[in-house]
Fold each of these.
Amino acid sequence: MKDNQAILTDELWERVESLLPKPPMCPQGGRPRANDRECFGGIIWVLRSGARWRDLPSHFPSAPTCWRRHRDWTEAGVWETVWGLLLAELDEFGILKPDELFLDATFVPAKKGEKKSAKLSGVRG
């Protein structure tokens, strides 16, 4: 069994596929686009395993392809939409426990700047 088959059932894929943006058509033709479902499986594999993109198993599309698809879907807001739908569904079934939710700082962008107690360097001062 491939890694993506254990995670991505047909039922789950049907629900996710409709949330993905449609790819732009290229009038010149070109290389066929990699399968969205296989890319989604590769992205999930990387996110769940914590592995580097270049360690993606060979039965998935190439690492750069999966990375670009992840980037594009992130910019399109796909992951936030999926997360929101998942939370709504868990809440609907009474599985969501708000007192057990937390925000992981790895998802919050760090703001550039300096601490109030830090002294300015000679260059910046």
Amino acid sequence: MGYRILVVDDSEIIRSVVKKTINMSGLNVDVIFEAGDGVDALDILDTEWIDIVFADLNMPRMTGMELVNSMADDNLLDNIPVVIISSEHSKVRIKELMDQGIKAYIKKPFRPENFKDIVVEVLGDMNMGGQ
């Protein structure tokens, strides 16, 4: 059984690129869900088992950090790791995000190895499937 991943970004193009990159990473992926913002992500998280969330910071209705905070306040969601994908390169800002509860940060532009390394670091490599 592979990873169940949720990709949250208001850009359909970015979601598509992230999904393709994850699929190229060599991870054993069962399914990748998509959400256009934090509100849609919470709807998916309420009905689906998700192993890890990759989210943008800047989205309408609910930002990536608002999503992290909402998940932290929910006993059923607070242990699901969230990785932020953003073009923000400020080390101070990235440290602030880590202090607020994100598990990792991927800078745009990214490579497939970024996703594989982060998932293995955060979740372990039990589902690497022959890797």
Amino acid sequence: MIVYSSFVPYIMSCSDLLQTKYKMSEVKSATFFGIPYEVGIIGLPPVGLYADKHGHRTIIAIIGSIFFLAAFTVSAFLPTCDDSCNQELIPIVLIGLGYSTYAGVIWGLIPLVVTEKQVGTAFGIGMSFMNIGMAITPEVGGYIVDNTTKDFGYFGQSVFFIALNVAGLFLHCLIHYNDITYFDGILDKPYK
């Protein structure tokens, strides 16, 4: 869920980032703003289908974390533009790929680790943790943008998102290791 805590605030600030750092018009930035969701529309069904048929859910979640990490790293180091440019398109597409791979498998893990009677409670707890992250990280990200100067504060915000995704990647690798070591890889097996 830590990965969502960077995705949602990035999307929330994406239009402002594009208009401020890259001098895009409001209309053009609105078009770019929707790209991660458009990639998700195309990418989520095949990822979910693959996970159902072949498993590998924790590996796919790790790949999603890597996409997010790459997106925020590229975004952090892209230079500003004096005239409208499209260079943030690369991180935006990577965000869409990360969203497609991550969201396509993460919620499907819950029914595999709890009893049938606990599924609703487990989803509720998962959503609560996700909402805690999404309540805190936009505030922190906004504070960083407002109080730093490099690339209008977006460099610092990207570094914050990179840190969140490094933590998320570590946790996903830990989950994968524990699943393989102690639970016979139940999370990576296809549904029966």
